[in-house]
């Protein structure tokens, strides 16, 4: 095999003409915006961007053997699980025509295709996944005055922007829509149709940069590649694994996923379909191929070590034959997690979910008692970090215990005497429960503990937020300065510092429905309690004390006692 070369524009044209595809054995697209812009910077600098490996195969072979091929992602959207569109079947063309399937370089080629033909829609932090406005569509722009920027990490500035962002910055930066450069056949056309009309003929920096952009993307033969000609998917898989397992390009689960697809052609479609469905439930989740693959092995009582030898053809056929029940169990478990109030923002360990799926797969009930125990399990498993150091060992021990006990109902008592790496257990001591109030500040962990303390909220119907009973903003200097405490003294600096730390801890947090939390906002606790219809419904509210902010110390002490007593009842 010898290197061959092509320009980026020719490669893009070939993708558009459906000469280049993504084979089913490839993993998903995972690059972020910074990786894309650094790739573009490297291209502009004339740096090598790596070799590509293409599988050259006749269309007739692809059609006869029903190999699944996929088109490139063009319009990337965070919410759509970055799924490649399936190629048409059969692939159209004469029997002698060939296509390329990308074996190495898929992330780079997809990034170039998105940058030069499509767009990216990333989720804005803190906005809801169901909100379409949380995903603004952005295209890649190039700052034609890049040589003016002061940045040690990059020489040429590329950025994904909305048109609104471009217009907002046009007085400071000269942004050029990168995909437009592919429209022009010659330097003369570029000068006549772009440079002169925009007044850049005298602007040497802008003019030189756009000419360089044109040269790098249109005329230079930057794409260096090898071709592999094989008809057998097994032989192609062998090449794929050899190429990708030598470095850190692919994770082990990615390579094993490729092995599964080589024996079950529809696996990619089926797993993508399942992930798309479960990741859209409730407020959204971030389940991955790794979770699905490991859980399949777990449910079928196989080793959960992700090793190639585990994925013998017989095991893959077992997954295929049981796929319907596997999907059903996973979906019903995710529905239960949604019912408990969990989503991508407050799940720390997805591995911890597999035993719940196992319980359901083995015909375990989701009755009210089992639900309460399962809620305890998923909270304790994450709080205690049971799956932190040796997750495979923890999974195996829990599965063995579930096999040895009745799986019709779930009971945490069956797991309490298990011991895990680092002397971790599911059991709590009284001192450990008391320490929870000082260990965790507002986070996924405090939400988990609050979900135990507020088990009857309709989490799947309404969005519940962690609310500061004494408002967060009330601890700022302008609010707390010269405050007089109940004993008549003025609050000192050490007390202020201590209160500011403790404002985020469990005893000052409650769960409120989103709209109610928004209306409460910065309202002092004593005023909020006067406004609501029935303060008796406020859980763990100490009685016969002042709710004025100056009495924060007594409030925290008494509320911690109430909450701690309930946690001890649940956990001990």
Q: How would you explain this protein's 3D organization?
A:
The protein has 572 residues and is α+β, with helices and mostly antiparallel strands. Helices cover 44% and strands 11% of the residues. It is built from 23 helices and 13 strands. It has helices spanning 8-16, 33-45, 59-64, 106-117, 163-169, 187-195, 204-219, 233-244, 252-263, 267-279, 289-299, 313-321, 323-339, 354-361, 368-383, 391-404, 430-439, 444-453, 477-480, 493-502, 514-520, 525-531, 552-571; strands at 4-6, 20-23, 51-58, 69-70, 75-77, 98-104, 119-121, 137-143, 158-161, 175-177, 223-229, 464-468, 509-513. Strands 1-11-3-6-2-4 form a six-stranded mixed sheet. Helix 17 packs across helix 23 (552-571). The radius of gyration is 29 Å and the shape is flat. The relative contact order is 0.07.
Helix tally equals 23
> For the CA atoms, what is the radius of gyration?
29 Å
Q: Please give the alpha-carbon distance between the first and last residues.
A: 67 Å
Which range does the strand content fall in?
5-15%
Q: How helical, in percent, are the residues? A: 40-55%
**Which outline best applies?**
flat
Instruction: Please give the number of β-strands.
Output: 13
Main sheet: strands, sense, barrel: 6 strands, mixed
Give the oligomeric state. single chain
Structural class: alpha+beta
Mean model confidence by pLDDT:
88
What strand line-up does the widest sheet have?
Answer: 1-11-3-6-2-4
Poorly predicted regions: none
């Amino acid at each position: 095999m010898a290197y061959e070369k092509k320009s980026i524009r020719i490669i893009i044209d070939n993708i558009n003409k459906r000469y280049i595809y993504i084979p089913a054995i490839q993993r998903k697209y995972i690059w972020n915006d910074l990786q894309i812009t650094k790739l573009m910077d490297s291209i502009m600098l004339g740096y090598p961007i790596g070799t590509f490996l293409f599988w050259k195969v006749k269309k007739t072979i692809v059609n006869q053997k029903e190999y699944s091929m996929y088109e490139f992602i063009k319009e990337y959207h965070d919410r759509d699980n970055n799924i490649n569109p399936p190629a048409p079947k059969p692939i159209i063309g004469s029997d002698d025509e060939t296509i390329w399937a990308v074996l190495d370089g898929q992330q780079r080629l997809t990034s170039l295709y998105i940058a030069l033909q499509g767009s990216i829609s990333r989720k804005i932090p803190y906005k809801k996944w169901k909100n379409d406005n949380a995903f603004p569509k952005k295209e890649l722009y190039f700052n034609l005055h890049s040589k003016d920027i002061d940045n040690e990490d990059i020489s040429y500035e590329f950025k994904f922007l909305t048109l609104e962002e471009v217009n907002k910055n046009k007085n400071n930066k000269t942004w050029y829509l990168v995909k437009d450069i592919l429209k022009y056949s010659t330097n003369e056309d570029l000068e006549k149709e772009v440079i002169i009309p925009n007044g850049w003929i005298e602007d040497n920096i802008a003019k030189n940069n756009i000419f360089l952009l044109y040269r790098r993307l249109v005329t230079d033969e930057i794409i260096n590649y090898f071709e592999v000609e094989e008809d057998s998917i097994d032989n192609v898989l062998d090449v794929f694994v050899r190429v990708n397992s030598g470095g850190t390009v692919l994770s082990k689960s990615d390579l094993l996923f490729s092995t599964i697809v080589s024996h079950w052609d529809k696996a990619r479609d089926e797993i993508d379909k399942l992930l798309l469905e479960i990741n859209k439930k409730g407020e959204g989740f971030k389940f991955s191929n790794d979770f699905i693959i490991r859980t399949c092995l777990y449910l079928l009582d196989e080793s959960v070590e992700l090793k190639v030898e585990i994925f013998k053809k017989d095991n893959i056929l077992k997954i295929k034959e049981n796929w319907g029940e596997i999907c059903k169990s996973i979906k019903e478990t995710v529905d239960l997690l949604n019912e408990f109030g969990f989503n991508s923002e407050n799940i720390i360990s997805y591995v911890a979910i597999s035993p719940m799926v196992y319980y359901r797969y083995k015909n375990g009930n989701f009755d009210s008692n089992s639900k309460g125990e399962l809620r305890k399990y998923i909270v304790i498993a994450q709080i205690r970090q049971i799956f932190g150091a040796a997750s495979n060992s923890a999974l195996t021990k829990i599965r063995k215990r579930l096999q040895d006990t009745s799986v019709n109902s779930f009971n945490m008592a069956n797991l309490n005497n298990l011991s895990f790496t680092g002397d971790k257990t599911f059991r709590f001591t009284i001192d450990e429960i008391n320490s929870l109030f000082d260990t965790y500040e507002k986070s996924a962990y405090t939400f988990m503990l609050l979900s135990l303390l507020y088990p009857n909220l309709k989490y799947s119907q309404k969005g519940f937020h962690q609310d500061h009973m004494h408002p967060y903003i009330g601890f700022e200097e302008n609010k707390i300065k010269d405050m007089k405490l109940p004993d008549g003294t003025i609050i000192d600096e050490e007390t202020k510092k201590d209160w500011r730390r403790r404002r985020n801890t469990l005893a000052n947090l409650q769960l409120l429905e989103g709209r109610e939390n928004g209306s409460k906002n910065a309202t002092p606790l004593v005023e909020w309690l006067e406004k609501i219809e029935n303060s008796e419904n406020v859980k763990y509210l100490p009685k016969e004390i002042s709710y004025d902010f100056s009495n924060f110390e007594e409030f925290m002490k008494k509320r911690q006692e109430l909450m701690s007593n309930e946690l001890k009842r649940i956990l001990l």
